[in-house]
Prior knowledge:
three-stranded antiparallel beta sheet; 8 strands; single chain; globular; 178 residues; alpha+beta; 20% strand
Amino acid sequence: MPRAIVQLAPGKPEVLALKFAKGRDYGERVLFSTVDERVLYLDQEEARELEALGIPKEVPFSITRVRTGKGGTRCEFARLNGAAEKAAAPNGSARVPQAHDTPVYPEVPAVSSLGSPDLTGRITPVAAKLLASYMTAVDTLLETQVYAQRKGLVIAITCEDVRCLAATVFISAEGGSR
């Protein structure tokens, strides 16, 4: 069965963790395998930027496809270990992270199957999917709140709203199975 391809929507961050630190070269494109059994294709320049960050395998990071001024797109990468550093833009200039950029998560030790802390910051494929579901829920609820305000409505978002929507997104992404 072919693996799903990571689809990057412009302006929407995607949290990924790579199965291997290096991608596999396929001419103009480079294939990266993710811990959640999907594949990510990047052009050569984007792949070099990602590999230059030195993100170890199984460590989550954020990738966002952003529009360029000429109608094209490029990828921006961000670490999720508290550093929030961005990869340099293709033209060599680094962009300073802003408060509204990809959220920064504190480094929380995972627990291995033996119950001991795994201090490398690795996450399981299910945890990566759940994290992505929460990010989608927060983004969706905030956009909904902005839209409602434009229509003259006031919507207060609660933690329960985020939890419920994240669970719905996660279940939907899993095809309704557990």
